[in-house]
Amino acid sequence: MVVSPVSNKALMDEGVKDTVNDACVPIKLFHGHVAALKDSVDIMFIPRMVSLDNKVTLCPKFLGLPDMVRYSVSGLPELIDLRFDMRKGKHELYNFLFRIGQRFSDNRLKIGQAIWQARGSFVNYRRLLLQGCTPADAFEILDGDRQLPQEKRCGGIKLAVLGYPYTLYDDYVSVKILDKLRHRDVEVVTPEMVAASDMQRMGKTLPKNLFWHYSNRVVWAGLYYLLDMNVDGIIHVTAFGCGPDAMTNKLIELEAKNQRKIPFMTVTIDEHTGEAGVDTRLEAFVDLLRRKRGLL
Ligand code: SF4
User: Fold this and answer.
1) What per-residue confidence (pLDDT) applies to 155?
2) Which residues contact 114 (CB under 8 A, 6 or more apart)?
3) Is residue 121 part of a domain?
4) Whose CA is nearest to atom 6 of ligand 1?
């Protein structure tokens, strides 16, 4: 298995060249990753992700991703672009994984064992996220490179950082916002640290939910941290060119500022975002929260 390099400026520049102008930053970067891999692999895995639950779909860019890539990047190898749609029923996940396995082996037992092993890894990974680890922390712990910290670092301020996983946890896209906050002794919580049952509970408090899976998760996580966890502030990290975030951002902002009187800041990332500007804003926001709590 070959994975593309960690995101960097060269990949982003390549992606910008290949993608249509109005694509969002993560989609541009994705094209850069495809370009970096295409000459070193025989098959490329770009599934058509339609629905991860049995209710709503992902953003249309996920639905069309294999097609966008196919028509934007030349010289591609064979694509595995199988459709994944949990609205088809509860066996869809197994069927999807099994169909992928059949591209590599006729041995049904071997495919089943691989799926079972992957499920075990995912359960362990998910457990670590719910204990407050970021995906990068969880991978290191699962690889045995480090231990789970016994105590959370906390300097009196708790901040919810909301955004899509492919934005928040990609150090190049997010300009390492999570690390920067932790280095300032802020306790950081993200949507991936919220249990599924709490997400569902928050979804039921709204008269209507959004149409896109990840956007709903961001809104529900925002509500959970505002209502149940008493965070000191919220930062929403949003990618330039993201259509769904026009609504997601406003919903969280209204709930935080108008209903709860909790400080809220939006950080919009584009391909030209400089770290210095983000650093200054983060520093000012954290100082404001500390002053509000009487810690400065
Ligand atoms: S939700 Fe926004 S950031 Fe994510 S793929 Fe869709 S447009 Fe891009």
Assistant:
1) 55
2) 101
3) yes
4) 59
